[in-house]
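Session log. Operator J.P. requested a structure for one protein chain; no other inputs attached. Running the standard single-chain path with token output.
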Amino acid sequence: MSKVFPFHEALVLENERVKLRALIQNDVANLRVFSEQEPDLWQYSIQSAAGETNLQLYIGKALKDKSAGNAYPFIVYDKIMQEYAGSTRFYDIQSQHACLQLGYTWYGKKFQGTGLNVHCKYLMLSFVFDNLGFERVEARADVLNKRSIAAMKKIGFVEEGILRNNALSADGIRRDSMVLSILKLEWQNKVKKNLNNLL
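Structure written below.
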């Protein structure tokens, strides 16, 4: 039997490499450098955080969705570099169906390709499957975002198909979205072990 997602708890997911804690509005200060200096991080996103005004709106929307019981956003802290690295979240959380989506993930460029994402995803997936007992985690990406899709497949997400013309990107252009997922049995039988070997 799965649990109800604990929206009102101050969640902290961490290991020796990374710490994920609940995002707050004051984290604008911790993420401003990416917003101002690396605006292309949101090239394939539905909502851009490029520029401080957009970053404030981005965090505000994430927190509003959290208050509504739809999402739980995190700020990501790299313990090795001792710096904030980016953000990620659970969203479309459906406790009654024991499923959710994982996404809105971005990291500053110097943190990309360092293994940080694998640690983040391991902590998040372990929380969902091992702690909450959920049955399914879904992820989506713009079909043009080959880097993100490859990263998700490396983690163990299985490609399910494409939602055609299903969303507006931040620049106002309609996009097709790749849908991928991991099921609880896949996590238990294979994905968890494989991810452990990558840590």
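Operator note: The helical segments are 28-37, 52-67, 116-131, 146-155, 184-198.
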